[in-house]
Specification:
alpha/beta; Arc Repressor Mutant, subunit A; Rossmann fold; globular; binds S-adenosylmethionine
Length: 334
């Protein structure tokens, strides 16, 4: 009967308002203004963050009804675990992730047009592809970096738990972003050397992070585009959340550039969410929509990785799932 289905659909569609509300309070840093274990009136929070008092109150009341913040009988708001994760100083803070989704929301609003022609919503809304736009927008680029750590940070310990990288002399993280994955790998394997490779505008932040982790002597930072050439001199090349950003033709180009420098004993690791068969919900299918909307790439099945590898001169030798959404897809040069 339609009424029930309509109620369900209405609730599902309300998710877009909920997502916007989370992004908005993250943008204003509302959770930062509430000390854990205490609560503050919406009027005080509004004054501290530059928000409109009544609008902020209603938004926080709505969020509290979804388990984000909690309102006490006096009308003051405290943190719940979900609200605490939006504090800037929370371990693995999600604040940058929420801000990233909020800033990039115009891309989601283009989905209908994306369905017409397949072009990413980001390109439509912002006038150019995401990785051409970000270098010109340092503030957004910083938020994007933080967002990647917030969203994918937990994948790193899960990957290190599930996969044994021992025996690798020099390990290159290509498109390594802020260096957090490479930092964890080098910390786990003290004899290993590292190469972090990314675009110029990212390199500065990565260099500072690696320095802070005391890894400057074991890790080189190189600037460049993987569409032009891969950094030479590594025994293993890892790309996490790189191939999923690109279409098949671009992905094959990236892999061919890797093939051009990888030594015969070299190992290729693609770390991505592999799309399972069937109708079950899966993070890979969530990520895949994000790929359609933002970079215009795609998540792939194991069979699709196998044929990408083959087209670039690699053989797929294994897929190792981890306790997180990603698997390690391993290739060797043929
Ligand atoms: C989705 S992020 C993934 C970052 C990181 N690997 C991780 O898993 O958190 C994509 C990364 O690819 C980098 N990138 C994009 N285009 C690139 C190019 N042409 N050459 C090198 N790096 C590039 C971006 O700067 C960004 O750091």
């Amino acid at each position: 009967m339609a009424a029930e289905e309509n109620i369900q659909l209405l609730q599902i569609m309300g998710g877009s308002v909920l997502a916007r509300a989370i992004a908005a309070v993250a943008e204003f840093g509302v959770a930062d203004q509430i000390e854990p274990g205490s609560s503050r009136a919406a009027s005080e929070l509004a004054a501290a963050t530059g928000c409109h008092g009544q609008a902020l109150y209603r938004c926080l009341r709505y969020l509290a009804s979804h388990g984000i913040f909690v309102e006490d009988p006096q009308g003051a708001f405290g943190l719940t675990p979900l609200a605490a994760a939006l504090r800037t100083d929370a371990p693995g803070s999600f604040r940058a992730g929420a801000r990233m989704f909020g800033r990039m929301f115009p891309a989601v609003a283009e989905l209908e047009n994306t369905l017409r022609d397949g072009e990413s919503g980001f390109s439509k809304a912002f006038g150019e592809p995401i990785f051409e736009y970000l270098p010109k927008q340092p503030e957004l680029a910083g938020i994007f970096d933080g967002g990647m750590t917030a969203i994918h940070g937990a994948e790193t310990p899960a990957m290190l738990e599930a996969f044994d990288f021992s025996g690798i002399g020099t390990f290159a993280d290509v498109g390594g972003g802020n260096g957090s994955l490479l930092t964890s790998v080098l910390q786990k394997y003290p004899a290993m050397k590292g190469i972090l490779f990314d675009l110029g505008h990212v390199i500065e932040r990565a260099t500072a992070n690696l320095q802070k982790a005391g890894l400057s002597d074991r890790c080189e930072v190189r600037e460049g585009s993987f569409f032009e050439a891969f950094p030479e001199g590594a025994d293993a090349y890892l790309m996490r959340h790189i191939i999923h950003d690109w279409d098949d033709q671009q992905s094959i180009q990236i892999l061919k550039n890797c093939r051009a420098v990888i030594p015969p004993h070299g190992r290729l690791f693609i770390v991505e969410a592999v799309v399972p068969a069937g109708n079950e919900p899966s993070p890979a299918k969530e990520f895949d929509m994000a790929m359609l909307i933002y970079p215009g790439g795609m998540e792939r099945t194991e069979a699709e990785y196998r044929s990408l590898f083959a087209a670039a001169g690699f053989e797929l030798v294994g897929v190792t799932p981890t306790a997180s959404p990603v698997s390690v897809v391993e290739g060797r040069p043929v």
